[in-house]
Amino acid sequence: MAEITPVTFRWGIISTGKIAEAFVKDLLVDPKTRDVHDVVHKVASVGSRSVEKAQEFIDRVAGGDKSIKGFGSYEEDVDAIYIGTPHTYHYTNALDAIKAGKNVLCEKPVTCNAAELRSLIAAAKEHNVFFMEALWTRFQPLSLEVKRIAEEGSLGQPVLLHADLSGNFGIHNIPLTHRILDPTLGGGALLDLGPYPLFWAILALYENPANNLTAPTNISASMLNTPITPVDSSTIFNLTFSTSKLAAQASLSCSITLNALETGVTIRFERGNILISSPIYCPKKFKVQYIGENGSITKEETRIFEYVGGGWHFQADEVARCVRDNKKESALWGHDKSLLEMTVFDEVRRQGGYKFPDGVEKVLA
Ligand SMILES: NC(=O)C1=CN([C@@H]2O[C@H](COP(=O)(O)OP(=O)(O)OC[C@H]3O[C@@H](n4cnc5c(N)ncnc54)[C@H](OP(=O)(O)O)[C@@H]3O)[C@@H](O)[C@H]2O)C=CC1
Ligand SMILES: O=C1OC[C@@H](O)[C@H](O)[C@H]1O
């Protein structure tokens, strides 16, 4: 077989925080370890509020690679910019990058509200650039296989989906300025953890061909605040999908004070179940149960997925391929799904009474 010459994709990184480090480490993993031969990734520059921090990040995470430029600002000459700042900075950082004609991969939640996202989508169209939320779980091989099995027919239609993402942040022992507690940084469970339970509902229900990409017909929600700051410590939200061909519901929750459950997602179909192990943002294992005529389990299969790296590189491969092919959005996690996410979150916050402090939302509906 002829050797493919891979495209070298140059990334500019904005932020020197926790997730930026995880993403950059994955960019440095040899793509061949995950059987990817058409793209390779190169970290070209790191932007921070401080040039010293940027250099310290390059030394620590990328072995001091002299070809990587460190900037005390966010201007870079690259194929795409990855944004890993706190939620409430995504809009401004992404807009600046888009206006500079850059392709953008922006961390989840892509913005604080749907109005900000609509404004970014319009800007991306105007400047003819690729734009995607970094909903990394969508691109992992396990998710692709869950989707294939869910839609292949032998389980029947999905009826009920339960998904929870909890993570104990030790909220009594972290500063009030921590991004998870600070309302000016969009703190709380919903915006930080909520994208993942919602992602599984989008994959299994919204994307189900019988739903024909129809938005939920009902959203009901309740939020519980922390005793410390006015952000949600836990939130529950339910979605109903009802079309002529699909009648299904999702019961979703997230918490910043509890540990994760062993099984984070359960998708119940007419003739079986899919049970996905935690962590639900990069699960390595799921189980499929087939149910017979009398309601008992007739067959059970466990599937395990392993790869080198943390799982963030799959979304990087998607961005590189989309940009190479001149696509402006991903077919797997396009603008419509991020917009659905932000619309659901706006409604959950409305019902739950979570208002951001004045000035946090840069665009209002
Ligand atoms: N996909 C995933 O698995 C994960 C995604 N995330 C998402 O990534 C984003 C960042 O999270 P995380 O990396 O944990 O956050 P961190 O606090 O670790 O890092 C955020 C970085 O943003 C920069 N920054 C710019 N302005 C501010 C500000 N006013 N306050 C604090 N930091 C600022 C800082 O870099 P500098 O000082 O260099 O400018 C800082 O290091 C969030 O939106 C979160 O939802 C988080 C964890 C996992
Ligand atoms: O995206 C995320 O996934 C893992 C969580 O621990 C983190 O807080 C969140 O931002």
UniProtKB/TrEMBL annotation:
SUPFAM superfamilies associated with the record: Glyceraldehyde-3-phosphate dehydrogenase-like, C-terminal domain, NAD(P)-binding Rossmann-fold domains
Sequence ranges assigned to domain GFO/IDH/MocA-like oxidoreductase in this UniProt record: 145-274
EC number: 1.1.1.179
Reaction(s) the record says it catalyses: D-xylose + NADP(+) = D-xylono-1,5-lactone + NADPH + H(+)
InterPro entries with a match to the protein in the record: Gfo/Idh/MocA-like_OxRdtase_N, Gfo/Idh/MocA_domain, GFO_IDH_MocA-like_dom, NAD(P)-bd_dom_sf
Chain ranges of the Gfo/Idh/MocA-like oxidoreductase N-terminal domain: 9-132
Entry superkingdom: Eukaryota
Top EC category: oxidoreductase
A Gene Ontology molecular function term of the record: D-xylose 1-dehydrogenase (NADP+) activity
Key words, A-Z: Oxidoreductase
Family from the record: Belongs to the Gfo/Idh/MocA family.
Record-given protein name: D-xylose 1-dehydrogenase (NADP(+), D-xylono-1,5-lactone-forming)
Organism in which the protein naturally occurs: Psilocybe cyanescens
Lineage: Eukaryota, Fungi, Dikarya, Basidiomycota, Agaricomycotina
